Amino acid sequence: MVAVAAPAGAAESAPARQAAETCWATHYGPQPPGALTASGELFDNNADTAATSLTRNPQLPFGTLVRVTNVANGASLVVRINDRGTFQQTPAEPKCLDLTDGAFSRLGGVLNPDQGHIVVTQEVLG
Fold first, then answer.
1. Which residues pair with 98 in a beta bridge?
2. Per-residue pLDDT tens over the stretch 11-35
3. 103: helix, coil or strand?
4. Which domains does the chain have, with CATH numbers?
5. Backbone dihedral angles phi then psi of residue 111, each to the nearest 5 degrees
6. 92: which DSSP letter?
7. Separation CA 67–CA 75 (nearest Å)
8. Which parts of the chain have pLDDT scores under 50?
């Protein structure tokens, strides 16, 4: 790698990107027909969307994009926050996202028999 000097007056380096947070992602499971998310959208259990944990402070705004990566297999996808969850912290890992069943499966989560959660990293993209 070759170092390149910054132009005079430029900042020495851009701030380092914050490390991705490790946490548990769960999934919704069956929802009644016509269910709405907290953002008012019709719930789609196959969409790449998620609820953010109410234990997160501050809350991620609706529409925030988050890259979620399964630590066990490296599978990754970007989900859009459109709901709020009611999760609680656990001694092992905080619960951070409640994924749709489709997103959970695409990341390698097992629905039947239900493994309950997967350990993920999450990176807020914007």
1. 26, 51
2. 333 333 445 678 888 888 888 889 9
3. helix
4. 21-124 (2.40.40.10)
5. -90, -30
6. S
7. 10
8. 1-18
